[in-house]
Write a structure and sequence with these properties.
CATH class of the largest domain: Alpha Beta
Radius of gyration: 28 Å
CATH topology of the largest domain: Chloramphenicol Acetyltransferase
Structural class: alpha+beta
CATH superfamily of the largest domain: Chloramphenicol acetyltransferase-like domain
Number of helices: 10
Number of domains: 3
Distance between the termini: 64 Å
Strand content: 25-35%
CATH architecture of the largest domain: 2-Layer Sandwich
Largest sheet: 7 strands, mixed
């Protein structure tokens, strides 16, 4: 009996994914709910479990292929009799290979996610000839959403790398070959020992690179060989001090400019285009950055976006926070920040102006009788927006704990796709970076986003007296197709009132 493995539902408004990684290969035995593969969408990675126990008879969608919802991924042969087929990815060992190595295993590009058909090889953590353990991370692929780690499908020796760093690969494409068995691990050492001194393809990085086990990018090695410069002249900017092609270009430019500086010409010469080009650095946009750029531009092109501003006196919130923060942390195990106050204030305002919490679906307006709050978070890879669900029913402590937990996992790249979908309103805090005022861009299909900014003391007139007060500018960007100016201004005023007198939140005023 054969059971089909199909693409699961990928989430709201998501219709396709890219096969990033297969954890099993044809011929492998699988258990019910054992992870078979990983799909990558434009947001997160989705794991596909086995619907039945048996043998993975056939992989229909290879790594790198783009698949739609409910598309066929693979077939599983159920029952013990299915365990006979040999793995399709293995090949017979060559006659001159060590007897213990037995066979070779192909390392393939895993499923990359919905609508993602290709990736770029960003880093190899192993080099040819090194021994690898099963499931040890071999390399990292970069897509337009997330980075995908590729584990070793078997233990042995990494005998050949087919796609070097910087290479664009398609889902299902081949990355490398592993020679299985302990015998294969011994060969590389002898190979390296016999290699000529001038062979720089996989030489050990110089002391200037920071770590002796860090492998420089192949393009950088080639550039160093062509330019005739040594590794210690190059300052690596890659991970763990890895030298990249751009680092070599900078080193070459610095070396060529040094003699000219020593000559001390009598008169400065006019700059020429070649000099400018030598001082430029061209870096390809990451796939995540490309997707962020596309989505932000789509939001501007689709919505009738407008921004209204106000300012809030943070005196009362800051006093309340300072008074109770120690007791709050002692009881709840979470720090009391400003985000819970702003979240509660927005929930309060959204009840009065529900269109800010609604969305347009064709010719319909969909009003949400709940608040799923998106909290924008900056990560080294780019901006992500984890969603806190049903914040209208949560306490200050619940909100603070969830913000801290999701923020940490966002920075670690561990958020699931589901955790970044379904938001009805978003808060973006540019103040943590020092922004005094900005106009945030909507996160479609939402109709509103609140921008928080830096708290700065300014002279204010209070009861006829000029006093210094901690002030913050607030910005509400909204979709004018659904939210009128009156509603937007009312929303922002209600947020301001709730923050300037937090007691209003307790009494729902």
């Amino acid at each position: 009996m054969t059971t089909e493995v199909r693409v699961p539902t990928l989430g709201e408004s998501v219709t396709e994914a890219t096969v990033a990684t297969w954890f099993k290969k044809p011929g492998d035995t699988v258990a019910v709910d054992e992870m078979l593969c990983e799909l990558e969408t434009d947001k997160v990675t989705v794991e596909v479990p086995s619907p039945a126990a048996g043998t993975l008879a056939e992989i229909v969608a290879a790594e790198g292929e783009t698949v739609g919802v409910d598309a066929l991924l693979a077939n599983i042969s159920e029952g013990d009799s299915a365990a006979a087929p040999a793995p399709a990815k293995k090949t017979e060992a060559k006659a001159d290979a060590p007897a213990a190595s037995g066979a070779s295993v192909d390392v393939m590009v895993p499923t990359l996610g919905e609508s993602v058909s290709e990736a770029t090889v960003s880093t190899w953590f192993k080099k040819e000839g090194e021994a690898v353990a099963q499931d040890e991370i071999l390399c990292e692929l970069e897509t337009d959403k997330v980075s995908v780690e590729v584990p070793a499908p078997a233990a042995g020796t990494l005998s050949k790398i087919l796609a070097g760093e910087g290479t664009t690969v398609e889902a299902g494409g081949q990355l490398a070959v592993i020679a299985e068995g302990a015998g294969g691990a011994a060969a590389p050492a002898a190979k390296e020992a016999a290699a000529p001194a001038g062979d720089t393809q996989y030489s050990t990085p110089a002391a200037g690179s920071g770590r002796s086990d860090v492998e420089d990018a192949p393009a950088a090695k080639k550039a160093m060989a062509e330019a005739g410069i040594s590794r210690d002249q190059v300052q690596g900017s890659g991970r763990d001090g890895r030298a990249m092609k751009e680092d070599v270009a900078r080193a070459v430019a610095a070396a060529s400019s040094a003699p000219a500086a020593a000559e001390a010409p009598k008169a400065p010469r006019a700059p020429v285009a070649a000099d400018d080009a030598a001082r430029e650095e061209r870096v390809k946009m990451t796939r995540l950055r490309q997707t962020i750029a596309r989505r932000l531009k789509d939001a501007q092109n689709t919505a009738a976006m407008l921004t209204t501003y106000n300012e809030v006196d943070m005196t009362e919130v800051m006093a309340l926070r300072n008074q109770y923060k120690d007791q709050f942390e002692k009881k709840h195990g979470a720090r009391l920040g400003f985000m819970s106050f702003f979240t509660k204030a927005c929930v309060h305002a959204l009840k009065e102006v529900p269109e800010v919490n609604a969305e347009i679906d064709g010719t319909d307006i969909v009003y949400k009788n709940f608040v799923h709050m998106g909290i924008a978070a900056g990560t080294p890879q780019g901006l992500v927006v984890p969603v806190l669900r049903d914040v209208d029913q949560k306490s200050f402590a619940d909100i603070e704990k969830e913000i801290a937990e999701k923020g940490k996992r966002a920075r670690d790249g561990k958020l699931s796709m589901a955790e970044m979908q379904g938001g009805t309103f978003t808060i973006s805090n540019g103040g943590v970076y020092g922004s005094l005022m900005s106009s945030p861009i909507l996160n479609p299909p939402q109709s509103g986003i609140l921008g928080m900014h830096k708290i700065q003391e300014r002279p204010m007139v209070v009861n006829g007296q000029i006093v210094a007060r901690p002030m913050m500018y607030l910005a509400l960007s909204y979709d004018h197709r659904i939210v009128d100016g009156k509603g937007a201004v009312t929303f922002l005023v209600r947020v301001k009132e709730a923050l300037e007198d937090p007691r209003r939140l307790l009494m729902d005023l």
